[in-house]
Amino acid sequence: MSSVATIPVRRLGVGRPSRALWQRAAISLVLVGICLGMAWLQLWRAETRGGNFARQQAGAGAAPIALGADQRDAELLQWRPVTVRGRWLAQRTLFVDNKIHRQRVGYHVLTPLQLDGSRAVVLVNRGWVQAPRLRSEMPPITTEPGPVEISGIARKFESKFFEFGSPQPEGPVWQHVREADYRQRSGLDVLPVIVLQSNAAADGLIRDWSELQGPGNPAQRHYAYAIMWLVFALMAAGYGLLAWKRA
Question: How many CB atoms lie within 10 A of CB 188?
């Protein structure tokens, strides 16, 4: 009998990573990159917001600053206790819309205070007032005539952020109060901070700034988020390695 030699035939593609495997690996790398990027973002926010909180705490314990027309350094004044003397420009009062206090909708009442002996003004957030039932009505605000002395905490104007369209103030009702917009629309020489009034006054407004000042150091929350995203990155990397080994 004659013997027939068996010649091994190599199957094409055996031993080479398949296209599906490369796709899973690419997806894993993308997911790892996204998760690491989000972790870095949270660490950056922890550093910046934690620094702001530390400056806020340090400023709150400092001696009050008597505001004058020559004080234009918003960074220096940020979260510092201040006092200011002047006269209310009651006819320039504006209402910041959609402010919630204990699940009730209302406004923050902002009135410029003209500094004694100067044309400069500082915008004062006098507190919260409940909105009337009809949007066409405005709540009555009692404003003390004559010279007054206000004490409170200085805070920079809102920063501009992304929003759909450019909603314009409707009379005295504003959605956001930004320094450049306020200067342009009011024509007033305004200081670069808003004073959150803390002293008592017979105006019926509620002065509770705990929400604006924050309940605690926000850095801890962002560190926790960063750890969460790092865990997600490890999970994505593990998925990629497992898929590669099973190929």
Answer: 17
- Pairing relationship of beta strands 173-174 and 190-197 according to DSSP bridges: unpaired
Cβ distance 157 to 182 under 8 Å? yes
Question: Is the pTM here over 0.70, yes or no?
Answer: no
Cα distances (Å, whole numbers) of residue 93 to 51, 88, 97, 104, 112: 33, 9, 13, 21, 7
62, exposed or middle or buried, with CB in 10 Å at 0-12, 13-18, 19+? exposed
Spatial separation of the C-alpha atoms in residues 52 and 58, rounded to whole Å: 10
Q: What is the pLDDT of residue 220?
A: 83
Provide mean pLDDT across the span 39-43: 91
Q: Please state the separation of Cα 34 from the chain's center in Å.
A: 23
